[in-house]
Amino acid sequence: MNILVTGGAGFIGSHTLIELYKAGHTAVVVDNLANSNPESLKRVAELIGGGVTIPFHEVDVRDRAKLTQVLQQYQFDACIHFAGLKAVGESVAKPWEYYENNINGTLVLVDCMRQNGCKNIIFSSSATVYGDPAMIPITEQCPKGHCTNPYGQTKSMLEEILMDMQKADPEWNIVLLRYFNPIGAHPSGRIGEDPKGIPNNLMPYITQVAVGKRPELGVFGNDYDTHDGTGVRDYIHVVDLARGHVKALQAIGSQCGLAIYNLGTGHGYSVLDLVKAFERANNITIPYSIKARRAGDIATCYSDPAKAERELGWVAEYGVDEMCRDAWNWQKNNPEGYAK
Ligand code: NAD
Ligand code: UFG
């Protein structure tokens, strides 16, 4: 298939491009580079090899005219829609910007797609839509919950919008992928997560402590109702997550209508479990201190990924040791991310 990949220069998009080409697909990338560096795409092409060039258009998905040009220049079988802003804390400070970029961007994209004859889309959703989950492990049957921040609201609202569109026009095939916590990097160490400024997420914070950029990790709370008091999450290797998108294309190909899948490993690790796993895998000590809870955090979140296995034949293959090894391999080889 030929795939329009919005946000393809970003963390998950860049890893997905490699898996798409490995599976025999081709792609065209649209990204406004708001949170990425085009160097990622150069490295993706190197990793794919064989002289492949992936067409890249520096276009904002809210720009109807430019997006239409791209849709008319190529024939797309489907779109994988990663483009969006994703920093939870920033979304609290800049709600308008988050609603405008994520919701308006997606509305413009799907409108341009349908006007140009492509009604197949895979959407990057998030476990955040479950709020404080009503069940653990979380199946897709779990009711959606209250999102504590505008970023999470955009994911939840966009799911509703896409579901309504599919109901009204059954020609649409829409796959909502609810990611758990993607970490790690391509095993080559050439592409990875390149957060701007102080990382919000746990793993990039740990790797920046490991490389000496930050003195210590702050652990947000040790009084949760978990085995060691720190928050429990379902960390998933970004390469496994990327492969999940390739598998989701099968659902599109078989005219799934609407389909929702959790992409996680089904295992929960606490903050301190992850710190210890990182120390063990890389033989590095991570200094940390316990801080207050972070507003909006929940105690425990991990998936039941059985539906994706049953229907797509997808299971996460990498374990937490490989996630820690590859996250560190990326950080130590690229201490300044793509900037150096
Ligand atoms: P990322 O920031 O690395 O990638 C997103 C890309 O979208 C960036 O390259 C950015 O420049 C681009 N972009 C943003 N707004 C755009 C616009 N209006 N037009 C064109 N391009 C635009 O983030 P990521 O971690 O790769 O996440 C990809 C998607 O997955 C996002 O939608 C994110 O919300 C979702 N998601 C991420 C996580 C996570 O923890 N990383 C978890 C759940 C869901
Ligand atoms: N944490 C720390 N210190 C840090 C950063 C995080 O202790 O410096 C803790 C958090 O309190 C939490 C755990 O590490 O218990 C994981 O936190 P992250 O910020 O890495 O991830 P979240 O689970 O909070 O959220 C992430 C993404 C969301 C996404 C969600 C579910 O940031 O966008 O996973 O997919 F919605």
Structure in words:
The chain contains eleven helices and 14 strands. It has helices spanning 11-22, 39-48, 64-73, 88-93, 95-115, 150-168, 202-210, 238-253, 271-282, 306-312, 320-333, and strands at 2-6, 26-30, 56-57, 78-81, 120-126, 173-179, 181-183, 217-220, 232-233, 235-237, 258-263, 269-270, 288-291, 300-301. The chain has a seven-stranded parallel beta sheet with strand order 3-2-1-4-5-6-11, sandwiched between helices. It has a three-stranded mixed beta sheet with strand order 12-9-14. The longest helix is centred in the first third of the chain and has 21 residues, at 95-115. The mean pLDDT is 97. Residues 6-7, 9-13, 31-36, 60-62, 82-86, 101, 105, 124, 126, 179, 182 line the site of nicotinamide-adenine-dinucleotide (NAD).
In short:
This protein is of the alpha/beta class and 340 residues long.
